[in-house]
């Protein structure tokens, strides 16, 4: 029976095609000239160039972190190209002007921009390599004052907002990869929800790395003004390539008083082949700051990438603010993931919930790493953490490193952890009822992840469930 | 329906069934009784195709087909149902969703159209009454947090919905109070017809008061050592298993 588990884990990556379009690619290497080039290409104001340069100079003094429970060869930062854009860079006024090849790619991914526009009512910003290709639904959003555009555009059109909030949650000195991103970020999404506005539709970004030898360094900034509410979705895929590609993104969320931001990710970067060759290094910094009565909620389904290094976190600055982290991470074949969250309780009566579900198959190695910090002033803070691991097969691993730091004795902390294996008994039970081994695994795994899936917006939950099935196909035994 | 011929089987290299021969006709209810370790559960698991059980010799023919050559799920889809001695929990998987997936897998196998949620629910509700389970129970996760009796009733409920041609009950009566026992027996009785065959594996006679078998077989040391009518069960209840074992030894 363990052959079946293996098979399910070793399914092929279905999004691994390359789009043949002309790209404007910067020469490999990283120096001040490149930083200036990127800034110049994007016609950025002086203050932003300065910010990038400060980040770059700081980055040169830093060294790559080694504490994560993942193994990979040295990354040659001088061999990466830090900028790649589909050519034909005149300003796009409508979707019809997007390069047909690019649009075909998004159609293959199941996100036909037009379809999205008409049917689902989800506004999409699609980032292809380094450049944001098109943002749907602009006018409808503009009616309620919601700004949703590419980061570059935001810098041009709304410089005050960008300047005020950029780096306010993840400063350019934050960590090796975030600092690198600050120096070379090429594009990303920007979103602003004005005071008291409930964003009328889900906002969504799709990221795609296409060019070979490039890194993708996008930056997302979401600001929900007082009393505003928004739900944001992010999806990602990449072609299959033998070399490892670096993806070092930064996401900053700002939820002002009484605001609420829900950020959902379905991450399906190319995970490398069955021998562990190639795949994306996904080294991402995601963090949000919640002011008084505000709420931040991260939901992630991580099935892709060769290596994932990611800790979506919440700074619970204001009194009564709430932070949530719901995560499903899958490591199959030779994938590695070190992921979790940080909940930093600063305000009074702050509450946080962590639900992490890790699934390992094949030779996958997975680590949950979480830190809950209760600061001195955080009277009556509460945290509930639950970390469950599911193992498929006997060559994979699951590790849990929960850190808890409490400086206020009124805090209430709960932590639950479990590790289980998909048992032969469970599989047999399903098969004895006529259900195939593959369907059985997918059913058992979905059941295991149910608490997280129910946090996802409807159509995303369906996609996530399918993705999970595909990622684990072949892994039951 | 089922022809078992000189079956030798075991687990982890240890032989448990040593030349078992048994014939179950369509529409018949057979009870297999025997002391602990006689091979009762091995028989049930071998018939259902549980991994790790190895057949070393002999044959099993089900409806003219070689049962042992069929993968586990195919046996199920062809109408072999095993009510388990220890039903497993599947956390987070809705009981009714699970059963619907099972029913539709069977239907698909037979080229029938899959049932939608409403059609399925109608059938499920009817069968639920049979085992005296209420609706709330359907929406709980498969066997999670169920009492021993509920788990067994759930097995019978699944059996009733799947409507198998051959139902094998592996010590379904163990650990049940008298009410649950009656419910289980009634569930099986409802399935009885000239099209359905049942193999009841049990240690005790008491289930057989409610569920009267056509034939009773005694299993000892991996072989059927005695067969008879329903009265054999009563005899076993009174005298225990020892006299049979002695009889067998004496006959050698």
Observed structural traits:
heterodimer, A: 477 residues, alpha/beta, 11-stranded mixed β-sheet, 24 strands, 25% helix, globular, B: 252 residues, Rossmann fold, 6-stranded mixed β-sheet, 4-stranded antiparallel β-sheet, 10 helices, 12 strands, 40% helix
Reading off the top of the CATH hierarchy, the class of chain B is best stated as Alpha Beta
Instruction: Please give the largest β-sheet of chain A.
Output: 11 strands, mixed
What percent of residues of chain B adopt helix (DSSP H or I)?
25-40%
The CATH architecture term of chain B is 3-Layer(aba) Sandwich
Q: Which structural class do the helices and strands of chain A define?
A: alpha/beta
Number of helices of chain A: 13
Question: What is the CA–CA distance across the termini of chain A?
Answer: 4 Å
Give the N-to-C terminal Cα separation of chain B. Answer: 32 Å
Counted up, domains of chain A total 1
Count the DSSP helices of chain B. Answer: 10
Rg estimate of chain A, integer Å: 21 Å
| Helix fraction of chain A by DSSP (H/I, runs of at least 4) | 10-25%
- What is the global morphology of chain B? globular
Radius of gyration of chain B: 18 Å
CATH superfamily of chain B: P-loop containing nucleotide triphosphate hydrolases
Mean pLDDT of chain A: 81
- The backbone outline of chain A, from C-alpha atoms, is globular
Q: Strand content of the residues of chain B, in percent?
A: 25-35%
> How confident overall, as mean pLDDT of chain B?
91
Could you describe the largest sheet of chain B, including whether it forms a barrel? 6 strands, mixed
